[in-house]
Amino acid sequence: MVAQTSETRSSGGIVKGLKALLVLALVIVALVLGVWISVDNPQPVSLVLMGFSLPPIAQGVLITGVLMLGAILGFVISLIPTLKITNENLSLRRKVRRRDKELGRLRKAPLKD
Fold it and tell me: Considering only CA atoms, which of 15, 78, 58 is closest in space to residue 66?
């Protein structure tokens, strides 16, 4: 196992800080774009979904909401393969741990002629 130096630990903190700044910047850009779309499209729109008439809503708010919903659904759908891989990794680690224990027991056991 490699010992971590203070330089290694601080670079990990820098990466986390940069990641947080990037996420913050993306959130701010998304909010600005949402406000911009809403301000540029104030016309009310009335939707009919499956025979039910919804109350009029500003076109910009509707567009921004649909874009946000699509982004969230895309993110959630992209998590599925990641979760499968994480689960597989955990399973493989458990198998390796079990086999290491078995190997340790076999190494300690006396040889039979």
Answer: 58
pTM, 2 dp: 0.59
Bridge partners of 58, per DSSP, are 44
Asked if residue 44 lies in contact with residue 57, where contact means CB atoms within 8 angstroms, the answer is yes
Share of the chain above pLDDT 90, in %: 42
Residue whose structure tokens are 């921004």: 64
Q: Which residues contact 38 (CB under 8 A, 6 or more apart)?
A: 58, 60, 61, 63, 64
Tens digits of per-residue pLDDT, 26-47?
989 988 988 888 888 888 988 8
**What is the number of residues in the chain?**
113
Contact (CB, 8 A) for 43 and 62: no
Task: Show the CA angle centred on residue 97, arms to residues 96 and 99, nearest 5°.
Answer: 65
**What residue ranges do the domains of the chain occupy?**
41-108
